[in-house]
Amino acid sequence: RRVLLLGEGNFSFAAALCGARGTHVVATCYESEEEAAGRGGAARSIRRLRDSGAEVVFSVDCTKLKQYFLPGEREFDRIYFNFPHCGRKAGVVKNRELLACFFHSCAEVLAEQGEVHVALCSGQGGTPADQPRREWHNSWQIVAVAAGAGFILSDVHPFKAETIHGYKSTGYRSQDKSFCVEGALNHIFTRSTPPLCLTPVSCKAQLGSQKVSFQVPQVLVDKINRGFLELNSSHPVRTIKEKLSAGLSQAFPLQNISSCLPLLHQGHPGGVCHSSVFWVTVSPGEAPSTEETSQGLADAVWFSHFGQDTDRDVREGCPIPKQFPLRPSLLPHAQAITQRGAFSPGTLHVLSGPVFRQCRITPHSMPVFHEMLVVLAVSRGTENSCIQMLVDNIKTTTSSLHQAISGIKPSINLREAASFGTELNDFAAFECQLGEIQHFLCVGTDPDSSGSCVGVIRTAAAELKSSELVVVSASLNLDLLAMLLCGISDWRMLWTSDRRFLQQFPEGELRLFKSFSLYPPSYVHDVSFWVPDGEEFDEVAFHTLARRVSGETVVSVQLRDSFQQPGTGRRSLCYRVTFQSCDRALGCREAAEMQLRFREEIQQHLGVTLR
């Protein structure tokens, strides 16, 4: 591998590396050869480097690296820059500027899978790894600076000078004097995946005898057909679904519903807030291809409270409504199957697939997640014992998985619906809108926690041939389960396009997740505006616009102030919007551009007047 060392003072660090097998060292410094050789021990280190076959290059500016290497010589596997400094008494601002130019220069000579190692003295980096930690404005802000050039901090560890044979620091205030490296840290940066350039995506579907198409909402374009639950997937949500299914099959005869689950639902789901659903506008389209149909673009199903008249009208070719909700739940599909009498009593039927819901921005609120719905028709009077068997099985499998991953036994509780009060997370709150719930299934990461709701249990009178049957169903949020079991703190990581995520789960093995983007920088912007007179402000639509404009890099939206103007009664709102990416580099300039676009979008789509 090719290793580039920059800013060498006495070349003692380079000399310690040059003997490594399979490594070609290119050692450089900013000074001329005459100036560098005057430092104590430098001449000896330079001779050793040259004798070992290493390259030694002088007068190299770390901000213009491309100029010093031919195109075929620019693919360095590692770039080291130990204790960069502008010299003499340069302050933090000048050193930030140096690092910014350095990282931009690195991007031109680093191999695609390469690493950039930057060692800084204690406190300079400004990350939580520094102990003690300086105030942000007084640090070099290295992660934010690197993000501007497309790099993320993937690891940080102590710089152990004592383990580097012959190493001696030099260059204190541009003199041949050593400086203190106690508490110094080595920061390891890697390339980030580039920002997604999303183009509009249209889907085709068949409604009865009519062919229609619709445009996928922009916030879902990169999530609509990811195939996480397909047979060749090693994604943790599929692994958890398969483990749960295997456990359930030990207690019940089990049948996976392999039929194509439709993306469109007919009518407005009863009790569900209109703004909680993604509505798509359909238009006449060509017949869907076999491939498109196999991806879940089949006939729409109907919310059961609408009855069968609308279904018959569509089958008979009557005009169809123009707006449909994008599948917010698998429950209507299960209801449609029970109404057709396609459920075998005593057999556990398993449906799974992504569902889509508009929601506010929080680390655990997901506009899309994978639902696993298990449905069982049982004899009236036996439903409670069946629920207990079902829950016990899910608890056993989940507990076993969590202990295998983290070695800690989790808390798994079945809570009565009446005991929850206002503690519901977004998943549970939406499920309550779909119909009555008997129990909530809560999972915590330690035995003493009350846990987060990951599933709901329902019972309902079955619309089957026999009135003696009751349908028991359990809806599980596989994404929330994956986060809890694998220690993933942000739902967005489950949808990352960075290959390093799935590499941590080889062949579907579940492990504790280790983030490849440490201490991502955040950028705070405020926006205030007048609300249109006489209108209720749609906060969910506001959050959805923030998702769309930022490409899911807004991590928090908080209401800071609400003001009503005396006399006119006009209402003004002020929100604080925080931008932060969990998996890719996000620079301050990019975040500022997003904020400007966001201001334009809310003005155009929500009718507000900016202040």
Account of the 3D structure:
Helices cover about 25% and strands about 25% of the residues. It is an alpha+beta fold and about 600 residues long. It has 3 domains: about 1-190, 3-Layer(aba) Sandwich (Rossmann fold), CATH 3.40.50.150; about 200-285 and about 320-505, 2-Layer Sandwich (BirA Bifunctional Protein, domain 2); about 525-610, Ferrodoxin-fold anticodon-binding domain (Alpha-Beta Plaits), CATH 3.30.70. The strands form 5 sheets. Strands 3-2-1-4-5-7-6 form a 7-stranded mixed beta sheet. Strands 10-15-16-20-19-18-17 form a 7-stranded mixed beta sheet, with helices on both faces. Helix 4 links the parallel strand 4 and strand 5 (about 110-120). Residues about 285-315 have low confidence and may be disordered. It catalyses: tRNA(Phe) + L-phenylalanine + ATP = L-phenylalanyl-tRNA(Phe) + AMP + diphosphate + H(+). Belongs to the class-II aminoacyl-tRNA synthetase family. Keywords: Aminoacyl-tRNA synthetase, ATP-binding, Ligase, Mitochondrion, Nucleotide-binding, Protein biosynthesis, Transit peptide.
What is the fold's blueprint, element by element?
Layout: E1 2-6, H1 12-17, E2 24-28, H2 33-37, H3 42-51, E3 55-57, E4 76-82, H4 92-106, E5 110-120, H5 142-147, E6 151-158, E7 185-191, E8 202-207, E9 210-215, H6 236-249, E10 254-256, E11 265-266, E12 279-284, H7 290-294, E13 301-302, H8 309-315, E14 323-325, H9 331-339, E15 348-356, E16 368-379, H10 383-406, E17 411-416, H11 426-434, E18 439-444, E19 452-461, E20 469-477, H12 478-486, H13 499-502, E21 523-530, H14 539-550, E22 554-564, E23 571-579, H15 588-605, E24 609-610
Parallel strand pairs: 1-2, 1-4, 2-3, 4-5, 10-15, 11-13
Antiparallel strand pairs: 5-7, 6-7, 8-9, 9-12, 12-14, 15-16, 16-20, 17-18, 18-19, 19-20, 21-23, 21-24, 22-23
Helix pairs in contact: 6-10, 6-12, 14-15
Catalytic activity: tRNA(Phe) + L-phenylalanine + ATP = L-phenylalanyl-tRNA(Phe) + AMP + diphosphate + H(+)
InterPro entries: aa-tRNA-synth_II/BPL/LPL, BMT5-like, Fdx_antiC-bd, Fdx_antiC-bd_sf
Family: Belongs to the class-II aminoacyl-tRNA synthetase family.
